[in-house]
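# step 3/5: fold
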Amino acid sequence: MKQRPFSFGVLFSQSGTMAVTETAHLQGILLACEEINNAGGINDRLLDPIILDPKSDASTYARMTTELLLRHNVNVIFGCCLSSSRKRVLPIVERFNGVLFYPSVYEGFEYSPNVIYGGATPNQMIIPLLEYLFSKGQKKAVLIGTDTLFAREINRIVAEFLTESGGSFVTKDYVPLGTPKEAFRNIALRSIESQPDIILSTFVGGEIQKFYECFSDLSDTHKLPQIASLTTTESELATLPENARAGHLTVSSYFGSEEDPDNKKFVELYKSKFGKSRQPSVYTQTTYNQIHMLSEALKWSASDSSEDILSSLSSVSLEVPGGRISLDSDTNHTILRRLIGESDKNGAFKIVWSSPDVVNPDPYLMSYDRLIVANRMT
């Protein structure tokens, strides 16, 4: 007898400001579901994603979450990138005892028993990036980004570390989502004229393209500092002209250029589905990994209930593209590696530093003082 499929919700924007980044998240979902279903599914059950487009609007994420939980009767949702959308969705998921797989890097300082956090926390990204920059003598920063909770919280943490460690920030600049591209030239110019050692960017989505292009256009008249980012990946670089892509840093838990066999297979799978000129980013890899984590949990779960799925997830450990991942059961956050890459003109990253071991999440930065130790990078 044919088993009923396992249906779950997907809430990633395919239009609006966050379309570039969240389409990359959606690609990971589609890739993993196709792979699992082609292999026969999970205990002979196919995965059935119910995909909705919130159009980069926080209130629409909330409305569609209710729709998925109550009308479509799912209890698992993969979705959200910005913290503003996650914050709108979270109380609804908790109220109806659903499970939210949240795949994005974020600002930390949150825990919910109903959320599986797949992206990096501040200790898994900010600290290694600042230590790397300090090891290169880059201690004077411009802090710039989209006017979001993520950017403001990240820059608050960065400012604390810089101040306590002999570094400095010369300016902070925040730009509302949807700001016209022409306004970014003045922002880029102001950043360059502050003469920082480094520009720390927390722009997201389509704002990355606007800033990097305007920044690159000033190269004929100004000496440009390097940009270091927590959010610029292969997905965003692909939207840029070639002359705007190269020479910038990103801290991440994954780059498509990694050479391990599992990743090579993953990249080939990605290119066969989405185009040979494309490169997967951490946004795609994280949702791909999370679908496989759910798949593994469902194999051993006593039922499809949220309680049983969450219980099974706590013991899942998988080899995935880029290495092994597992959950920290105390925080529901993912144990990840730390990597720093430098972008090239093709929109890929050369890995310039990697952590020797995986790093446990510390979403509240409880285990860290605010001193940057540059010699840890050597």
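# step 4/5: annotate
The mean pLDDT is 96.
# step 5/5: archive (pending)
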